[in-house]
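User: Hey, my collaborator sent me this sequence without any context and asked if I could get a structure. I don't really work with proteins. Can you help?
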Amino acid sequence: MDLTPDSIIVFTVGGVRVNATIVYTWLVMAVLTGGAWLMTRNLRPDVPPNRWRTLLEVIVQAIEGQIAEIAEGPARHVLYFSGTLFLFILTSNVLSVVPGFRAPTGSLSTTAGLALAVLVAVPIFGIGSRGLTGYLRTYVQPSWIMLPFNIIGEISRGLSLAIRLYGNIMSGAVIAAILLGVAPLFFPVLMSMLSLLTGVIQAYIFAVLATVYIASATADPTRTATKGEKSS
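Assistant: No problem. I've predicted the 3D structure and written it out in structure-token form, which is a compact way to encode the shape of the chain:
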């Protein structure tokens, strides 16, 4: 049994082996791109929205509403990043119920790449909101002694994001394979439903944590201090 799609070689091009993780990642990207194009190809003011466009608008507004609650402010600048993370992970996990499909999120390389994207995005959003000096100052608050601890904290965030998502998806696949050997007629349906629910939850958790990290980096220290004084 292959625990990760990294070990499955689909084809070789010029001596370069392309594994299932890359192939299924491309497939998820194609599904998202094709679906977005189909839903928005007639996006004009004079054309009434169809049910697919309405569905897309509901999803986008729901994601934007969640981000606005977490960030406590305008969410448009975070929507594109966190929303993309959520839709990619959600689609990858949901498609895992399709026979033969291996979720790319079941590969540590994929989850590490997503976590690395979050680690890079956090300082970018922070610098864009506070400026370079203002963002770097957060690493030495409340004193210079906290500098190494704050840096370690940033790195541990990325590690926890990658390992949490990878562990949940991989463990689900292992349990499903074991139960499939025990009772091949009953457990596949049950495990498919459980895998679907777990995939949705994991996509939501990953996107929410990424949004929390970005909101923390872009928070206005003056507003935060004022809010703390009012609460006290």
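In plain terms: The beta strands are 9-13, 16-19. You can pass these tokens on to your collaborator as they are.
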